[in-house]
Write a structure and sequence with these properties.
22% of the residues lie in helices and 38% in strands. A 6-stranded antiparallel β-barrel has the order 1-2-3-6-5-4.
């Protein structure tokens, strides 16, 4: 039976993965949600919940943390509802675990926010900022030799035109 990866081998795989993402990736801003509903929030923060709506009364967002990531181009779906016309964008981003470790950033989880493309290209929908997406699924990926050791995170993102994620990171 072979030996599980040692630190040198793990560093090699991390370096390859991180270099690939930094060479071919896109700059993104990562906002970690540390409010009451987040999996990484403290027990004290989880107790501060609105009794009527069940939402956290205090919002704590850590970020922006500047990272590089592979971005799958967001495709939008038009939606016609009783309240009017809207759009939803679905996208995926791959982030290197090593780059998060280097910046002492928390690992991504659901309820976090990713900002893409802070350029004037998407001005019509982003109001002069980048496009903000909610992280709806975060899973580790890039497992090495069928071990629990992984090199990257694969994030599934969603942006809604009616309830944009930017409302959670900008002051009221």
């Amino acid at each position: 039976m072979g030996k599980v990866l040692d630190d040198c081998e793990l560093e090699l795989f991390d370096c390859i993965n991180q270099d690939l993402i930094e060479l071919a990736g896109t700059e993104i801003n990562f906002y970690a949600n540390e409010s009451g509903g987040s999996p990484r929030s403290s027990l004290e923060a989880r107790r501060k919940v609105d009794p009527l709506y069940g939402e956290p009364t205090e919002r704590t967002i850590k970020g922006p943390i500047r990272l590089m990531g592979f971005v799958e181009y967001p495709e939008y779906s038009p939606m016609a509802e009783e309240t009017g016309f809207g759009r939803e964008w679905d996208a995926q981003v791959v982030i290197s675990r090593a780059s998060l470790d280097e910046k002492n950033a928390p690992y991504p989880s659901e309820m976090d926010i990713i900002e893409l493309w802070r350029t004037p290209y998407h001005d019509a929908w982003s109001l002069g900022k980048g496009m903000f997406f909610d992280v709806i699924k975060a899973k580790h990926d890039g497992h090495i030799n069928d071990t629990p050791t992984f090199t990257q995170f694969r994030l599934t993102l969603k942006r809604r035109s009616q309830f944009g994620a930017e409302r959670r990171v900008t002051p009221p």
